[in-house]
Amino acid sequence: xxxxxxxxxxxxxxxxxxxxxxxxxxxxxxxxxxxxxxxxxxxxxxxxxxxxxxxxxxxxxxxxxxxxxxxxxxxxxxxxxxxxxxxxxxxxxxxxxxxxxxxxxxxxxxxxxxxxxxxxxxxxxxxxxxxxxxxxxxxxxxxxxxxxxxxxxxxxxxxxxxxxxxxxxxxxxxxxxxxxxxxxxx
Length: 186
What we know:
Shape: globular
Structural class: alpha/beta
Low-confidence stretches: none
Number of domains: 1
Largest sheet: 6 strands, mixed
Distance between the termini: 34 Å
Radius of gyration: 16 Å
Oligomer: single chain
Number of helices: 6
Strand order of the largest sheet: 3-2-4-1-5-6
């Protein structure tokens, strides 16, 4: 179950592989110029928020996004290994994703982290992050966000864009389910 506290989630800025629709997984790809600009825009959107801790994936694209955002927040950054993206093994760097739908349906693919195991790891990582002083900003990956969507009862078909922070408010007496707010740059 997803920890019930207010938090922010930010998918890292764009990389060349995002632009080319290549599968990144655990490949350590740097932000491109657009990704840096997205991180800078997210920094301005998040400036002045009450974020207390930033938890980040160990992959360079997420760490660089967090570093740029933190120029406005000046908060502790905690790198959590388990926030890394899913390992797609031999498919990383490829654009062919014919196997992807079957994998999400539970099919095992050689060299690829099993979908259910990945979601369990991602949920545990998110909850570990949310155990830090908050509100927490998690800077991670689209795949890790699938666990938030699934275990938070959010729309799993919704695409999480690069560089757009999303605030999450937990269910409560006046709010029957999670409320999310994409914080689009001005």
